């Protein structure tokens, strides 16, 4: 647990230190596309989360892992 | 999809009618109803396992962005399930008889078949609300609430997530908390853990009509823009649940040293109700990369999840979206999942060993691999965005109850 928190803090610090990463506001044309959204098909992901939660022993990761169903 | 904006009169009329109808149904305030910029998604999912469970799941999602950039969203899902589900018992060379969960009937499994409870039938309704509230130029709060109910299970949950943009909005940090409360009211009541299944002419020991479970979760995330074409997301999640974690309908076979049935309690086999620990701590690390490649879009994600039941899993998921034109695309999808079994998973027990404190024969907690392969096609029709997704989902493990083949078919239309 401590290692993970340290890694997260380190990665956050390194990201904030890497101001060379990223783009200027006027370079966001491609990132602003619908198909470049991190979750560009939320209905699909909602169904998938529910299917895999019901059929496997894992859940969560990209979002909260609660199931809201009695299937597992 | 990189499609032309759709603002036809017809589209707006349908959107407004749907928004108003759903708004009335959900009791949304007059202010929200009067707005005419609701984004609406309507989906239907058909999930069909060979010889086992089938699900029919329509869903509607509504979203509106206000002038202050706050976003309000609703989602309503209905889920109808029918078919048969593995009851946990091992296959046998003899015919097996089991008592139904209600205790009021029985069903038989032929020699050599996976024992399936064919009375599996349920429907579930789920309603969720989301609200995003910008705070100043660089911060945002997202609140979520969900309630879902089926005849033997009710769940309520709430969440709050704080997001902070930095480095000219190239980095977003997030921190979220969620809480879930579940009420479990199984058909026939809660069986006494590790007690033997009795014939329907006898009285089954019960530990009451209902039990509960709670879950608390935290999720830390970092999203980073790498360059004009690339985004990276990293998350760490920690969840703790306590309360009733067993599946009240699952049993474990107790066999003799030859692996044969041992008659007991009016049945030709001995079966005990499973027992899982009353708490579980899960952790997960998740990473995703998304990249624009010469007009197409690719993403790949990896999740490592582990818990204090000794379950550990790897999930790799990837999509590649070929944007054929502004109005249609093809998106293949591949997912691979592999899990290590819980420390208390047993396919069956022996009648010469002491009964373990915790035991389950639910194949979903056993060693398993699963693959999903399929594709989605997106297109414009009638001025709306449509998509159809067809996928094959296959599970396999050490024993035949784990061998499940399923077909996933989804249709989506956006107004």
Percent of residues of chain B in helical segments? under 10%
Number of strands of chain A: 0
H-E order of chain B: HHEEEEEEEEEEEEEEEEEEEEE
Radius of gyration of chain B (Å): 24 Å
Helix content of chain A: 40-55%
The low-confidence runs of chain B, each spanning 5 or more residues with pLDDT under 50, are: 1-11, 18-35
User: What is the average per-residue confidence, as pLDDT of chain A, rounded to a whole number?
Assistant: 81
> Main beta sheet of chain A, described?
none
What assembly state would you assign to the polypeptide chains in this entry?
Answer: heterodimer
Which chains have the largest interface? Answer: A-B, 50 and 89 residues
Compute the CA-based radius of gyration of chain A. 17 Å
Structural classification of chain A: mainly alpha
| Overall geometry of chain B | elongated
Keywords:
heterodimer, A: 72 residues, mainly alpha, 2 helices, 42% helix, B: 415 residues, mainly beta, 3-stranded mixed beta sheet, 6% helix
């Amino acid at each position: 647990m401590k290692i993970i928190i340290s890694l997260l803090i380190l990665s956050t610090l390194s990201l904030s230190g890497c101001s060379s990463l990223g783009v200027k506001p006027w370079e966001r044309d491609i990132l602003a596309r619908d198909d470049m959204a991190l979750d560009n098909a939320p209905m699909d992901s909602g169904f998938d989360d529910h299917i895999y939660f019901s059929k496997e022993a894992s859940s969560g990761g990209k979002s909260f892992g609660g199931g809201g169903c009695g299937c597992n | 999809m990189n499609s032309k904006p759709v603002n036809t009169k017809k589209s707006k009329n349908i959107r407004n009618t749907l928004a108003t109808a759903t708004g009335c149904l959900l009791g949304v305030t007059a202010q929200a109803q009067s707005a005419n910029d609701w984004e609406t998604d309507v989906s239907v999912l058909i999930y069909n396992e060979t010889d086992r469970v089938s699900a029919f799941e329509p869903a509607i999602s509504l979203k509106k962005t206000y002038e202050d950039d706050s976003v309000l969203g609703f989602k309503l899902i209905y889920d109808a399930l029918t078919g048969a589900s593995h009851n946990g018992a091992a296959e046998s060379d003899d015919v097996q008889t089991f008592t139904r969960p209600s205790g009021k009937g029985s069903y038989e499994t032929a020699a050599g078949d996976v024992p399936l409870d064919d009375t599996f039938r349920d429907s579930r309704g789920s309603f969720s609300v989301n609200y995003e509230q910008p705070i100043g130029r660089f911060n945002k709060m997202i609140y979520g609430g969900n309630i879902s109910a089926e005849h033997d299970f009710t769940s309520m949950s709430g969440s709050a997530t704080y997001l902070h943009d930095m480095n000219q909005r190239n980095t977003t940090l997030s921190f979220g908390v969620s809480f879930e409360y579940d009420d479990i009211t199984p058909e026939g009541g809660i069986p006494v853990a590790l007690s033997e299944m009795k014939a329907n002419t006898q009285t089954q020991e019960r530990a009451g009509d209902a039990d509960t479970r709670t879950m608390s979760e935290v999720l830390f995330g970092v999203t980073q823009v790498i360059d004009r074409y690339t985004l990276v997301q990293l998350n760490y999640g920690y969840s703790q649940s306590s309360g009733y974690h067993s599946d009240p309908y699952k049993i474990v076979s107790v066999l003799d040293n030859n692996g044969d049935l041992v008659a007991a309690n009016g049945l030709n086999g001995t079966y005990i109700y499973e027992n899982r620990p009353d708490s579980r701590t899960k952790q997960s690390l998740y990473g995703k990369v998304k990249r624009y490649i010469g007009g197409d879009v690719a993403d790949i994600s990896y999740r490592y999840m582990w818990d204090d039941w000794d379950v550990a899993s790897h999930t790799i998921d990837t999509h590649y979206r070929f944007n054929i034109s502004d109005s249609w695309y093809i998106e293949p999808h591949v997912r691979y999942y592999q899990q290590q079994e819980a420390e208390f998973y047993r396919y069956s027990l022996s009648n010469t060993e002491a009964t373990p404190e915790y035991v389950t024969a639910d194949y979903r907690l056993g060693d398993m691999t699963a693959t999903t392969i399929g594709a989605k096609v997106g297109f414009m029709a009638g001025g709306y965005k449509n998509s159809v997704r067809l996928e094959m989902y296959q599970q396999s493990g050490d024993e035949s109850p784990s061998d499940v083949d399923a077909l996933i078919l989804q249709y989506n239309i956006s107004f």
